[in-house]
Amino acid sequence: MARKAGGSVVQVAIVDDEALVRAALRSILESSGDIRVVADCDGHQALDEVAGSRPDLVLLDAVMPEPDDGLSVLRALRALPEPPAVAMLTAFDTSAHLRAAMAAGASGFLLKDTAVGTLIDAVRILASGGTVFTPTVGRAVVDGFLCAPLHGPDPVPEREPGNVREAPGAAVGALTGRERDVLALLAAGEPNARIAAELRISVGTVKDHVRAVLRKLGAPNRVAAAVIAHQSGLARYPERG
After folding, report:
1. Which of 125, 127, 142, 224 has fewest C-beta within 10 Å?
2. pLDDT tens figures, 12-52
3. Pairing state of beta strands 35-41 and 57-61?
4. Which domains does the chain have, with CATH numbers?
């Protein structure tokens, strides 16, 4: 759950087993002027550091040595009483474990070589409650999530109507027109406040629609719903003004 909004400073924790990567990310993010890195550590220290610093967003290396690998750390972070948003960082454009990370509650997937401006924008979106996955990672997640079982908590039931391994068009067809509007903006990475402003409805109404969308699609979280929307060609990018 994001704790910052609007012009507030975004607080970020970086979890990676390579100190040089952490230092580089810190330098990039803090050059923005509105992002502050409140913790950086390896997987072994992650839970204590995040619990103590209470960041809005954790950038988490997807591939770290066991037992404190990316997926284990993600599950531990999402089990905190007030879990931060978590985005997985990966050096690869495809990886089976990203599907499990999505099922475990990751809000985004970013390549480590993402352009500086894109990374900074993604952090702002993620910290405000949006979802982000860079195009090459997104393609791998879409293909894998729709074609293979999830390995992680709360897997999607195999035979329920609207489950995400059905043809995406069939699942989306169960939505009302307004729910499709909300899904399209959600798929573009928009947080609830931006969706509400774009559709001229209240944030509470957006939350109700999001819950209905997840239920009807059989999607465990917003990222899973975004995958279906992208596969169906529904993503909608509002005018910025």
Report:
1. 142
2. 999 999 999 999 999 999 999 999 999 999 999 999 999 99
3. unpaired
4. 10-139 (3.40.50.2300), 157-232 (1.10.10.10)
Residue 187: CB partners within 8 Å, gap ≥ 6?
131, 225, 226, 229, 230, 234, 235, 236
Residue 136 confidence class, pLDDT cut points 50, 70, 90:
low
Cis peptide before 161 (omega within 30 of 0): no
- Return d(Cα 28, Cα 123) in angstroms, integer: 11
**How many Å apart are CA 134 and CA 109, to the nearest integer?**
7
Q: Are 143 and 165 in contact (CB under 8 A)?
A: no
- Report pTM: 0.69
State pLDDT tens for residues 179-230: 999 999 988 778 888 899 999 999 999 999 999 999 998 887 787 788 788 7
Average pLDDT of span 95-103? 71
- Name the packing angle between helices 192-199 and 177-187 (round to 10°): 130
Residues 174, 162 contacting (CB under 8 angstroms): yes
Distances (CA, A) of 131 to 13, 23, 63, 108, 221: 17, 24, 20, 5, 10
Strand partners, 70: none
Q: What is the dihedral of CA 137, 139, 145, 147, to 10 degrees?
A: -140
